[in-house]
């Protein structure tokens, strides 16, 4: 693939809409725009033009925008057309662009990849942009927007600058080892290492919460057979996600429903009724239910049915214990719900949210395994550097080597080094046009 090729794609969602945006990026973007629209505006000034094919046939009226190299999303010359969002108009415009020499349709994520290669975005920003496009809840939006805006990259750069300062001080100690150095630099070196190590530790401490916000929390509905778990799940989901009947053991596998609770992404799990299984298939369902319930972030124990699930799985601190089928009898204290009538559902959702919100508190920006791995390598190298620096100037060379390792790990965080093998996987998740 030639980096100088000019690419184009629909940048807005597919399907009929009031307005559709078609983006062109590359050296021939402006000449392509001129061929379609005639005289062009100055960059960043919107004008209304009639777009025409090479044969002079009108395609549509469009708002035309130009962005100069170095001042566009990709860092290349860019042209954008805002046209009416019908399938016919979009097809005609893309067909006219495709007929021009030197232009080709973009591949998934290619615009963003060019932004990375031109230095307009770092790798963490690219990942944040992917998360922002996929965000389903308010917490995900906020976290992804912070990452896409470069917050993690700015933190990493701040850490790197201080480590470079510490390495420079160590280099001076090494270079003048045989001479009298007017000032002992080791206290400052140790202070810089300690500052960065402490901030890395705080970021790593918030990594689990960041991952849960990005991937979603799991809440398992646990109970005995016929407790009404599937009916409750369907009521919370607002649809028939799980098969329900009055036959005990209907649910054999774990059924998942994605929800937004208190702005957090939550996957509700409807599990098999917990009891001594009557056959091998049910035993497999019970074993899977126990496994998923234990791994969940929160469990809702639904009382009622044929037995008490707490005999097989003890509630953990913070778990909710709820009486089910509240429509069949008067509440006897505590939270009671009815999946059939909807009684108590609002209170249950609020209770789930109140339990999960503290788990999301203190979330950092490092929500991906790659981020945590890079931060972990940097933290380990700083720990070793601190140990060497504590032994005095005679260990300066070893401490400097550990600082180089830490700096390299931070540079990989934002994509400066050692991430080429990740790019195809990352950009494969992007839509065409982004």
Account of the protein in words:
The protein has helices at residues 29-37, 87-98, 110-117, 123-134, 138-148, 151-175, 186-205, 207-215, 229-237, 280-295, 345-360, 369-390, 396-413, 420-428, and strands at 6-10, 17-25, 47-52, 58-67, 78-85, 103-105, 217-223, 255-261, 264-270, 298-303, 320-323. The protein is 45% helix and 17% strand. Helix 6 packs antiparallel against helix 7 (186-205), helix 6 runs antiparallel to helix 13 (396-413) and helix 12 (369-390) runs antiparallel to helix 13. Mean pLDDT is 86; it is low at 242-252. The protein has a 6-stranded mixed sheet. A 5-stranded mixed sheet has the order 8-9-7-10-11, with helices on both faces. The chain has 3 domains: 6-122, Probable tRNA modification gtpase trme, domain 1 (Gyrase A, domain 2), CATH 3.30.1360.120; 125-206 and 367-415, Four Helix Bundle (Hemerythrin (Met), subunit A); 214-360, P-loop containing nucleotide triphosphate hydrolases (Rossmann fold, 3-Layer(aba) Sandwich), CATH 3.40.50.300. It has 434 residues and is an alpha/beta fold. The radius of gyration is 29 Å and the shape is flat. The two termini are 17 Å apart. Strand 8 (255-261) and strand 9 form a beta hairpin.
